[in-house]
Write a structure and sequence with these properties.
single chain, mainly alpha, 2 domains, three-stranded mixed sheet, two-stranded antiparallel ribbon, 4 helices, 5 strands, elongated
Amino acid sequence: MTPEELTTLVAQLEADTPASGAYFGIFQYGDEPDASFIKANKAGLKLFAAEILRAATQVEATLAHETETIIPLDFEDATWLDGDILVHYIEPVNYSAASQPEAKPRALFDRFSDNLQGFVLLSFGVFLLISLLVGIGNGIQTIANWISG
């Protein structure tokens, strides 16, 4: 579809769908963000789709722009929007899921700091264990000295 056709479709969806009867929300039912679901009625789905389609008309312009790298979504006055998760913007890309670039390897400092944290915690645990054993040993020796004399 051309941007003009998308704009016409967005206008038609918004004209045919009263916001007063719409409901749309993204909710999280677990501890992780991948445990999410959408609760919506037909009108809410249409209004949310209209906002996503409006963003689709701006993808080419945003990708061509040097400093504008996101497409903000306008849900400020959306009384029909609810939920635990609110999507504020879209970051357009020029690749598909199949041709997605590989993730960048983590920086050496990040890996080092992760390993350092584990090492410090392990060292502290070993120190506490040794201190406990030495303390118990000294305590037993002190008791034995009292008994013997």
